[in-house]
Amino acid sequence: MAVSPLDLLDVDDLLTDDERDVRELARRIAADRVRPHIADWYERGEVPVRDLAREFGKLGFLGMHLTGYGCAGATAVQYGLVCMELEAADSGVRSLVSVQGSLAMYAIWKFGSEEQKQRWLPGMAAGDLIGCFGLTEPDHGSDPANMATRARRDGDDWVLRGGKMWITNAPLADVAVIWARTDEGVTGFAVPATTPGFSVREVRKKLSLRASATGEITLDDVRLPDSARLPLARGLKAPLSCLTEARFGIVWGALGAARDCLETAIAYATSREQFGRPIAGFQLTQAKLADMALELQKGYLLALHLGRRGDSAGLRPEQVSVGKLNNVREAIKIARQCRTILGGNGISGEYPVLRHANNLESVLTYEGTSEIHQLVIGQKLTGLNAFGG
């Protein structure tokens, strides 16, 4: 009897009833609200961000691993399972949730004042307010320490000047968490999108993550009161800790894309006949499927281990780097291999495989490229810093 890829090792037995319930909730909303429309959203390069955010907010998916202020207070494993199910539908949809909760909301929750938390977090948790996270710049992606965006004191105010690029949710954001260099070091600000001098140009003609709103932010002498500054964010470690939060969701999310590709390839291979029998009955096809299922299982066990450790003892950045490096790298290999099984049909929008593969090209790069994660791991193994070398 055939089994689904993640049933091969009965890994479901490693989950609690509550974890399975949360996963099924995410799977249902993805099936009902995303899957029937995602191919069209992707082709048009448009996605109803606000509608989805409100629906996810009602289910407690936004900032779900945070506590208080309307957040669900879920476990790391529960959050990871939601990311996996949403990305099984589309990486762009999971990115909406990750950026909202693990970057924008987490930054305010972790480093903001009580006033900032009360002002922004309940609305963001409900999906009524959209947030974005402005760290990456046109000329500074992997090297945020040298960002060009500056914030200078002007009396009791701050004045921000610079720009941010490839910012998910920016075109619709109500608040942007912006990181800038100051005389005291890197500092974060919660910037209302209506502030004079703050503008966003939507990035169009993308070939990846098309079901996601991406923008370029321009800060033209944006004047803010000191109350907009995140008071507990001191130095570059603050935004980097936010990236660690987001990377954890990617560790799980990439598995969802890979699983969807593999399930699609198996279903296709068992029904597609060549030379008088299903192509799933040929040895070369079964070898491909076996190798992909093996990597999917290993990635899932790695993600679950990281989730359990995150819930019990917390995670170090290099541990999350191990998860992102392995799981995204293997997911994109699985997507590409599944495309070969589908042959010419693999490039059709009627199947999700090439869409997942294209999306994973972005996932491979954002929140730290594979090379950056290799260097993070290498530094931990050797004690030597090879960045910039």
Which keywords apply here?
single chain, four-stranded antiparallel β-sheet, 389 residues, Butyryl-CoA Dehydrogenase, subunit A, domain 2, alpha+beta, three-stranded mixed β-sheet, Butyryl-Coa Dehydrogenase, subunit A, domain 1, 51% helix, globular, Butyryl-CoA Dehydrogenase, subunit A, domain 3, 3 domains
Strand order of the largest sheet: 4-5-9-8
Can you summarize the main beta sheet? 4 strands, antiparallel
Distance between the first and last residues' Cα: 53 Å
What order do the SSEs take from the amino end to the carboxyl end, as H and E?
HHHEEHHHEEEEEEEHEEHHHH
Low-confidence stretches: none
Can you tell me the overall shape?
globular
Output the radius of gyration.
21 Å
CATH superfamily of the largest domain: Butyryl-CoA Dehydrogenase, subunit A, domain 3
CATH architecture of the largest domain: Up-down Bundle
Strand segment count: 11
- Count of discrete structural domains: 3
The helical percent reads 40-55%
Helix and strand content put the structural class at alpha+beta
Strand content: 15-25%
> Quick check: average pLDDT?
95
* CATH class category label of the largest domain: Mainly Alpha
Distinct helical segment count = 11
CATH T-level topology of the largest domain: Butyryl-CoA Dehydrogenase, subunit A, domain 3
Protein name: Glutaryl-CoA dehydrogenase
Cofactor: FAD
Family: Belongs to the acyl-CoA dehydrogenase family.
GO molecular function: fatty-acyl-CoA binding; flavin adenine dinucleotide binding; glutaryl-CoA dehydrogenase activity
